[in-house]
């Protein structure tokens, strides 16, 4: 790891918190399993990927259904010279992540919906201070304390801001344990590249579900291909002996400075919008109806599409992998090439209609956009999707 | 092949361990699998269930509507999940703790005293291992060699005595399932 130089600060913290650098946890466990299939939950896949991406600082506060992440980090971090802190609150956790990131460490926190609401102030500060950080939201049902069942009701919060100010998180939505692993590694690279918070938007079902994954030996095959090869963070506050001090802050007193920062941020977001849109498309060339769904919902939709294929109903799927930037280019391209032939978009979400707004903006009236959703722990079933598609198909 | 299984019982009976075993076995056999636990307030004495899918094709939804096989370790689980079985589906029930009969007559029912057999083999906690053996005696998910590999992996780190009891319990169950 080239940014090893920045780690010593973290190690001191570690000695203070746990007393000894020895750990009974076997770190070798994963060294042997490269390129082999292992059974792992979505939550643990995120945690292990973070470790392998060089994350050496994790702070979090417990909440179901994401507890496997802090539990895993608590076991894993001491053995590799990393820091695990179960903080006194979600606010403290995100602030600690901000501090660790300012000091140059790859840092992560995780929580579930109500806890993520509490972190919003910190996320806004991180965006304002232009710090890289990875924040995991394993979504559960809301509003309020809601319950522990899976939901996708935090889409607006994740992609439209959540905290105050004109900022954006980069938001990634895995739909399998394998993708949870791959996208988490990618998240750290994106965060460093743009010095911006990156959110992994998972849900209770994806987090709890176990699936086989392969931890690839060759990192070049990962989405980013540059994992753990980040350059030294010259902006980090690592002690200024023999150099001018660095300043990391989101507070700018001089009139005009904050406007300048905002202009700079907008430039950065424009570049992210142009370069980082990602989605999976299935059966688009033939489709008369296109389902748009993300995360676990997209998988359930794939099952419905398979059934309908047998009935000769032509349905395709767009599965956004980046929720911000939303893959609007893919939608506009499809409409450009297949205008009039794609007649309907059906957006399926575990919410009462959030991503559907971004789909409507991208479709821009060139096709009809319908919505199917349930929330509060309810998950639209394959049968419900099929039924709805059959109704739409009759209108074609 | 696509096999959809629900395993249910009370918290502490090893429902999640059984389910993990099946998913691990599927991985060992090179098949696709998903393991989806009910992650509510599953504590000892409460209810616990888990959905496992094993398939030769990519699995989309991990949720199960109709199941091919149902393993129930206590009476409330039978009442709750009996209706989810497909017509002709396989029902494995723990005769030791279930003194009611299934309502449906269109199922393949195996009533096996999992808990009593576990007691006989030396450890009542192995009832889940007996049930696992019984199910795998009926349904071939993997080869005997692959099953041994997963059994060894799942029991790794336990005392020699516990490993021996579990292996015996597994074989006893297997004989029932065949």
Characterize the structure shown.
- Chain A is α/β, with parallel strands linked by helices and 396 residues long.
- Chain A folds into two domains: 2-275, Rossmann fold; 280-395, Rossmann fold.
- Chain A contains 15 helices and 15 strands.
- In chain A, 52% of the residues are buried.
- Mean pLDDT of chain A is 88; it is low at 1-32 and 224-229.
- Chain B is α/β, with parallel strands linked by helices and 178 residues long.
- In chain B, 48% of the residues are buried.
Features:
heterodimer; A: 396 residues; alpha/beta; Rossmann fold; 2 domains; 15 helices; B: alpha/beta; Pyruvate-ferredoxin Oxidoreductase, domain 3; six-stranded mixed β-sheet; 6 helices; 40% helix; globular
Please describe the biggest sheet of chain B, giving its number of strands, its sense, and whether it closes into a barrel. Answer: 6 strands, mixed
What would the CATH topology of the largest domain in chain A be? Answer: Rossmann fold
Helix and strand sequence of chain B: EHEEEHEEHHHH
Number of domains of chain B: 1
Q: What percent of residues of chain B adopt helix (DSSP H or I)?
A: 25-40%
């Amino acid at each position: 790891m080239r940014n090893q130089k920045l780690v010593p600060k973290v190690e001191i913290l570690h000695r203070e918190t746990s007393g000894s650098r020895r750990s009974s946890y076997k770190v070798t466990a994963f060294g042997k399993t490269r390129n082999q299939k292992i059974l792992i939950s979505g939550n643990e896949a995120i945690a292990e990927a973070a470790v392998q991406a060089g994350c050496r600082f994790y702070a979090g506060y417990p909440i179901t259904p994401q507890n496997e992440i802090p539990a895993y980090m608590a076991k894993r971090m001491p053995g590799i010279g990393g820091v695990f802190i179960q903080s006194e609150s979600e606010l403290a956790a995100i602030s600690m992540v901000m501090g660790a990131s300012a000091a140059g460490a790859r840092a992560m926190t995780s929580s579930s919906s109500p806890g993520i609401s509490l972190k919003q102030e910190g996320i806004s500060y991180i965006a304002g201070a232009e710090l890289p950080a990875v924040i995991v939201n394993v979504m559960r049902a809301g509003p309020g304390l809601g319950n522990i069942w899976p939901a996708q009701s935090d889409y607006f919060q994740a992609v439209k801001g959540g905290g105050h100010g004109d900022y954006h998180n980069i938001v990634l939505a895995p739909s399998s344990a394998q993708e949870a692993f791959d996208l988490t590694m990618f998240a750290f690279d994106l965060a460093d590249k743009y010095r911006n918070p990156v959110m992994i938007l998972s849900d209770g079902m994806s987090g709890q579900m176990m699936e086989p994954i392969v931890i690839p030996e060759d990192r070049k095959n990962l989405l980013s291909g540059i994992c753990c090869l980040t350059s030294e963070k010259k902006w980090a506050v690592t002690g200024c002996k023999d150099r001018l001090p660095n300043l990391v802050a989101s507070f700018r007193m001089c009139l005009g400075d904050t406007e300048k920062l905002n202009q700079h941020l907008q430039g950065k977001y424009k570049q992210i919008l142009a370069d980082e849109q990602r989605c999976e498309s299935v059966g688009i060339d033939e489709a008369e109806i296109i389902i748009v769904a993300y995360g676990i919902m997209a998988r359930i939709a794939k099952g419905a599409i398979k059934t309908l294929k047998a009935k000769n109903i032509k349905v395709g799927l767009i599965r956004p992998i980046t929720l911000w930037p939303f893959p609007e280019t893919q939608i506009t391209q499809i409409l450009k090439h297949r205008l009039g032939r794609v007649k309907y978009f059906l957006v399926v979400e575990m919410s009462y209609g959030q991503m559907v707004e971004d789909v409507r903006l991208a479709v821009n009236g060139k096709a009809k956009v319908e919505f199917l959703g349930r929330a509060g722990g309810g998950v639209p079933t394959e049968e419900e999707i099929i039924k709805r598609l059959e109704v739409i198909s009759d209108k074609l | 092949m696509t096999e959809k299984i629900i395993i249910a019982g009370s918290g502490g009976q090893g429902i999640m361990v059984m389910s993990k075993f099946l998913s691990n076995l599927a991985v060992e056999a090179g098949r696709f699998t998903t393991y989806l636990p009910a992650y509510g307030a599953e504590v000892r004495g409460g209810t616990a269930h888990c959905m496992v899918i094993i398939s030769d094709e990519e699995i989309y939804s991990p949720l199960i509507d109709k199941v091919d096989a149902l393993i129930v370790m206590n009476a409330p689980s039978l009442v709750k999940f009996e209706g989810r079985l497909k017509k002709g589906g396989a029902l494995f029930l723990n005769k030791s703790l279930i003194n009611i009969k299934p309502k449906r007559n269109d199922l393949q029912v195996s009533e096996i005293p999992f808990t009593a057999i576990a007691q006989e083999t030396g450890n009542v906690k192995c009832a889940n291992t007996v049930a696992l053996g019984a199910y795998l005696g009926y349904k071939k998910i993997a080869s005997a060699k692959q099953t041994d590999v997963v059994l060894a992996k799942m029991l790794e780190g336990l005392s020699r005595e516990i490993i021996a009891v579990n292996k015996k319990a597994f074989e006893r169950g297997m004989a029932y399932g065949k």
